[in-house]
Amino acid sequence: MGTYIDDFPAEAKIVRSAFYTSFVMLALGGIAGLIQTLHRTDVFRFIDGDTYYTVLTAHGVFLVIAFTIFFLVGVFTWAVTTSLDRGVENIRVTQTWLGLMTVGSLLAAIAILAGFMEEPPSILGSELSADVLFTFYAPLQAHPLFYAGFAIFIVGTWLAGADWFRSYFAWKKENPGERTPLPTFMVLTTMIMWYIATLGIVTSVLVFLLPWSLGIIESVNPTLTRTLFWFFGHPVVYFWLMPAYLLWYTMLPKFAGGRLFSDPLARVVFILFLLLSTPVGIHHQYLDPGIAEGFKFVAMTNTMFLLLPSLLTAFTVVASIEHGARQRGGEGRLGWLKALPWKDPVFAGMIFAGLIFAAGGFSGMINAGMNINYLVHNTMWVPGHFHLTVGTAVALTFMAASYWFVPQVTGKQLVGRSVAFVQVVLWFVGITIMANAMHRAGLEGQPRRTAEPEYEFFEWSSAMGELNAQIALGGTILVVSLLLFFAVILATLIAGSRDGSVEDNVIPEPLSGPEDSPAVLDNLKLWTAIAVVLVILAYTLPLASIASRGGLVPEGMPTRPMVVEPLVLYAQVAVDYATGVIA
Ligand code: HAS
Ligand code: CU
After folding, report:
1. Catalytic residue list contains 238
2. Ligand 1: distance of its center to the CA of 97 in Å?
3. Domain count, the chain
4. Ligand 1 and 240: CB distance under 6 A
5. Hey, what long-range contacts does 535-544 have (CB within 8 A, 24 or more apart)?
6. Can you give the residue range of the structural domain that contains 490?
7. CA 54, CA 392: separation in Å to the nearest integer?
8. Calpha distance 74→344 (Å, rounded)
9. CATH code at position 224
10. What is the pTM of this model?
11. How far is ligand 2, taken at its centre, from the CA of residue 116, in Å?
12. In sequence order, what DSSP letters do the residues of 462-488 get, joined into one string?
């Protein structure tokens, strides 16, 4: 095995394109993040309150949908081709799904960015804008382009999954009886979870929101479309996390100089995510009216089980790191920590991401408690939580991994390793300051998703001034860190030497391999069937009761969608002409 670009030149091109698109989205989302942080903390305001919601939508969609998912399809393509040691089955298919994802995100981006125009143009009968935030809850309505772009993007990811399954089936035929290599197993379980989860959002977009924005149906049932969003909305967080875990399981032991502690345990973790990620989404809706408390209680119970795969991950990854440290001569109960490669930006970045995730995970547990959630829901506590989770556990892992991946897919040596180390340290410091202040502001009652949060008869600045200053300071440090990240990546692309010194693309064998795990773990059909049953149990009754109460397409709208009405009329006239009723 040489570097990735040596062994898989065509696939390296795809992975590079996915990463570069991801970096562009990171830059756009990061700029939006700085603008909104300085605005809502009243440090520096140069946009108006309405534009704040365009900025917030850009921040959310570009970062949590586009940056994360473009990066992960690059990681998954690398993981499948490397671990199966075979290229993709048909590079045209691979190019097609990346093209669909790119077109879809461009359409959605056009709708979002048009929101910045004084007078956004009107296209297809409605104003081109999408100030709907990343959750695009109705009754907020976006331009049809936004919904169509989102649907095309999701179809692109579906095709990507089919591409990786094709490689797997072809490999399986040539290697009968072989256990699925762990990285491929992780990709496939994640994609099965994704197929199940995206059924919710694609139904909501194609059956309700897009026809509604086109005027084909007059209104939607907001509780229904919100619930279908969260059917997808919680599992999507694991769609971001599971590739980060794949990197923790495969890269961290490698960089620590050791080997993964347990392949079987890693398989159990990914199966638990496959089973439990979707039937918990209602834990985002504890305060939503129209959903019975019993259904919320089921979501909470499932959520508590969902802590298990992450807690197992903490154990397995730390055990693997310790093994690596001891191979380097580390000793003692904790002395081995000193033997780890702390100066390496890839290793340090992922460890910082993991440490921050410990805090993010525990704030997630607070969120998950139905009663205590009443205290934090819709407050700044929640953005505090997700800047620790997707904003660091995932984003910092992806940035740290880029310092290894970019040389692998370009063949160029990393330029600015020490700057890269400073970057990951700055991110760790910035997020600690910002997210801590966000959590505290949330407990003080500061609302999220609010351009200029001030209350009447409440001395806002004295209560929130210090916390807002910390949020602004932390956010600014993150932007400096982001600039360093782009500086290292650009310097590598421009000046990185192709001196052949990029290390080989090798994933070390685990200490306890697949042969130690029951074959049933690889029975993806079984786990998929159980996952589907759990989703049916968790969602049939809530969705049925929401639809029966509020209607699929609410009361007061024409019995037939408006577009059908004229068509019926035209048909009637044609018949009347044909039968001579009308001369
Ligand atoms: Fe969450 C809201 C509950 C994990 C992202 N979450 C959100 C939103 C986002 C988000 C974006 O129950 C806001 C959505 C919106 O706009 O409204 N979340 C949880 C729970 C977990 C959790 C129980 N969230 C995530 C992850 C995310 C993410 C992962 C993105 C990647 N979250 C909620 C709830 C809400 C919510 C409610 C709704 C709140 C509301 O009211 O709106 C769990 O998965 C967490 C389990 C994790 C742990 C930590 C284990 C520790 C590990 C590493 C330790 C590190 C060590 C150091 C030991 C228990 C794995 C060594 C280093 C290493 C590298 C290992
Ligand atoms: Cu959730």
Report:
1. yes
2. 29
3. 1
4. yes
5. 535/196, 535/278, 535/279, 537/279, 538/278, 538/279, 538/280, 538/282, 538/295, 538/298, 538/299, 538/302, 539/231, 539/279, 541/295, 542/227, 542/282, 542/291, 542/292, 542/295, 543/224, 543/227, 543/228
6. 5-579
7. 23
8. 22
9. 1.20.210.10
10. 0.94
11. 30
12. HHHHHHHHHHHHHHHHHHHHHHHHHHH
Q: What is the pLDDT of residues 97-143, one digit of tens each?
A: 999 999 999 999 999 999 999 999 999 888 999 999 999 999 999 99
- Which contiguous run of DSSP H or E holds residue 16? helix 9-40
Cα separation of 542 and 339, whole Å?
53
225 lines ligand 1 (CB under 6 A): no
CB 104 within 8 A of CB 151: yes
pLDDT tens digits for range 377-389: 999 999 999 999 9
Task: Output the CA 546–ligand 2 centroid distance in Å.
Answer: 20
Amino acid identity of residue 6, one-letter, is: D
- Would you state the structure tokens that stand for residue 478, as one six-digit string? 């993150």
CB 152 within 8 A of CB 104: yes
Would you say the CB of residue 68 lies under 6 angstroms from ligand 1? no
Helix (H, G, I), strand (E, B) or coil at 534: helix
Residue-wise pLDDT for 299-353, tens only, equals 999 999 999 999 999 999 999 999 999 999 999 999 999 999 999 999 999 999 9
Q: Which of 201, 237, 376 has most ligand 1 atoms within 8 Å of its beta carbon, as the pocket-test mutant?
A: 237
Residue 446 amino acid letter: Q
Q: Which pair of structure tokens corresponds to residue 371?
A: 């009663």
Distance CA 583, CA 29 (A): 63
Q: Is 380 within 8 Å of 441 (Cβ atoms)?
A: yes
Q: How many helices (H) and strands (E) does the chain have?
A: 21, 2
Does ligand 1 come within 6 angstroms of the Cβ of 490?
no
